[in-house]
Amino acid sequence: MTCIFCHDISEEAILYQSRHFKLVWDIDPIQTGHLLIISKDHFTSLSELPLPLLHELAELEQEVITLMEETLPIDGVTLLRNDKNLMDEGTHFHSHLIPRQKGDGFWEHITLHKSSYSLHILEQTMRSR
């Protein structure tokens, strides 16, 4: 399958580029001003990003969120990242920057099938680091 992020984003659609990432409008926005930060290389997970790219991503997210908060009538930004099997087919790792207003109902409308599994191994591993 062809990755749309690797092959189908036109230069005109790119709002900004850093060395390893590009910034575009989301084509199916949750809210007006919804942006995506997409890695230029095809990674399937945040855990695959080399540390220098992870730092670049964090700096870019901070820069874009600051600009959003300074230029849009919003109360903040929700940052979400999609990776691995949670991504839409034909995409790769990316971050969503969603402009928000207090009381907009964002979290109230999310419904998930609650999974039941032990967190013991994760907790034990984190505590022993």
Automatic annotation (TrEMBL):
It comes from the Bacteria. GO terms for molecular function: catalytic activity. A motif (Histidine triad motif) lies at residues 92-96. The active site is at 94 (tele-amp-histidine intermediate). Pfam families: HIT (PF01230). Residues 1-107 form the HIT domain. Gene3D superfamilies: HIT-like. PROSITE patterns: HIT_2. InterPro entries: Histidine_triad_HIT, HIT-like, HIT-like_sf. GO terms for biological process: nucleotide metabolic process. This is Histidine triad (HIT) protein. It comes from Streptococcus himalayensis.
